[in-house]
Amino acid sequence: MYVAVKGGEKAISAAHERLGRERRGDPSIPELRLDQLVGQLRLAVDRVMAEGSLYDRELAALAIKQAQGDLPEAVFLVRAYRTTLPRFGASDPVDTSAMRVLRRISATWKDLPGGQLLGATFDYTHRLLDRVLAETRAGSDLAADAPAPAPQAASEDTPVGPLPRALDALVAEGLLERPEADPDAKCRDITRHPLELPADTPADRGVRLQALARADEGFLLGMAYSTQRGFGAVHPFTGELRRGLVELSFHSEELGFSVVIGEVELTECETVSSYTGTARPPCFTRGYGLVFGNNERKALSMAITDRALRARELDEPLVGPAQNPEFVLLHGDNVDASGFVQHIKLPHYVDFQADLSLIRGLRAKRRNKDNDHATD
């Protein structure tokens, strides 16, 4: 029904041309470079990289530039590019216990083995606009004479670790459930196989975590918030939140052993929750989140939502949407959601005319019926 629009091709071409001009902006201002985006808009780049499920900061920065900062559109571009890449195998499972940590905190223990590493965080800022950041010119900085910041204990150049798990003490005491993952279990890859619902068993947790890892951050934030507000009864503690560098290895059949192919930056979160179910003796239960790059809000929201989705497994009452795998997993993908919502901007002339004809016919039938009653 979209093909029948006359003159549409020229109009679309002109729209693309205008889009390019708007993207470039004022030509007298130097164009943004990708290294500037990677270095100075890192959190936006990491979000696109995570939700696009492709670990490449330069490509994520290119997508942000092309999308004029529209992050869901940038994710769409990265996902589309990802489908063109050859796939020659799967990596070995990453060992986050061996992470070289850049930041690591716990809200459950003040004194952690290895210590708390505050790192770079917005958590303790006053959320006041810093006018100094506006005092910049192309190629120069008016604040260049400002004193240098004091050295910090941990920086991007000095990762620490590996560090022990903050929750190991609870596991050793039997107060926290042990991870039940089967190292030999094969988990379905949702990028190659369609999602099968209801996906509410313990064996489906790997599939759910995949979907949550590439879900829209705002959607997951809303789901996590809803459980904390009473629609799911999950109000956890942050057992451990860590961000750092993890080695990625690949098993080579030609060599017969695994080789390290690089490092990736990951954010990992484990939450600790009590529960009201009857599936196991009184203890704490876990929620888990793992995301590419520096994505603390996403990892925390993912862990809270993961715990909420275990309601049936833990024999808890289902009282909120965040506990319903079908609701969460089918509506969290921002590419699906954005496409389905925005497609109503495209021509629907035939559909609308059909509805219009139906309404007119029903109204005419109603008028005729009213006239017959008036005559009687």
Short characterization:
The protein is an alpha+beta fold. Helix content is 37%, strand content 14%. It comes from Candidatus Bilophila faecipullorum.
Overview of the structural elements:
With 376 residues, this protein is of the alpha+beta class. The chain has two domains: 13-82, no CATH class; 96-119 and 152-337, no CATH class. 37% of the residues lie in helices and 14% in strands. The protein has helices spanning 8-24, 34-40, 42-51, 57-66, 71-82, 168-172, 205-213, 217-228, 296-308, 325-331, 334-342, 349-375; strands spanning 100-105, 136-137, 140-141, 237-252, 257-273, 285-292. The chain has a four-stranded antiparallel sheet. A two-stranded antiparallel sheet has the order 2-3. α3 crosses α4 and α8 (217-228) crosses α9. The protein is globular and about 90 Å long. Mean pLDDT is 88; it is low at 1-5 and 138-155. One of its GO terms (molecular function) is lyase activity. Residues 143-163 are annotated as: Disordered. Pfam families: PhnI (PF05861).
